């Protein structure tokens, strides 16, 4: 496999813009995304509610008006136990090419506080303008985007980067090719030995790469990918649990349900019941809103 064939979570910018801007997928709560990493720079800005981040081994709790910068190849996990309104800005790494401090490397601080309010406000404003799309919105968004990049490079960029961080970045680039392959083949029976052979490593070396640089063992990483896809089927289809399990590479339904209960603290059947109740509440609220609108039109 070549590096060009497999890149980990390549970010495709929104049409006409050098970035991606969207509402966080875990906005409804009860959301867990275990350890992963990608080449882009990500900023999560919480407008309402709260989020919990684990960057490497450090825990960060974000409240309203707070944000966090996730660096390229920075291993992180996200927990959103409750509903929230969080804006995500993904910036392809090449936007900072003129400011690399190493081979395709740039690092932003998590500790800078002076300009935090300005950064959060810019992201919230960008999202609002992006949603409204009035005349000239593209120029307004781009002006705010480049203002944000200026603040990041001027106030948050770290110049004194340790050699260990550079080495970790290089290793995670290599692991990125492997994890991209896993994302395409996760439903298959892929042993550590088989995967190592595909990429020209010994099983023991590949196992150590996962443990040291990703902070997770190979088996857990693969099962996390399977669980993410299985949960989407659990939410969006009426498939039987056993079919969902086999469709996404689990050895049996018990392996799926045990991992789900460990992660979400409930049975798959209970989770589905809660989703049905939630959809019923949303449908009722929507129906009431339409009735109120009709009343106003009649009056």
TrEMBL record:
Gene3D superfamilies: Homeodomain-like (1.10.10.60), Jelly Rolls (2.60.120.10). InterPro entries: Cupin_2 (IPR013096), Homeodomain-like_sf (IPR009057), HTH-like (IPR037923), HTH_AraC (IPR018060), RmlC-like_jellyroll (IPR014710). Residues 176-274 form the HTH araC/xylS-type domain. Keywords: DNA-binding, Transcription, Transcription regulation. PROSITE patterns: HTH_ARAC_FAMILY_2 (PS01124). Pfam families: Cupin_2, HTH_18. GO terms for molecular function: DNA-binding transcription factor activity; sequence-specific DNA binding. It comes from the Bacteria. This is AraC family transcriptional regulator. It comes from Roseburia faecis.
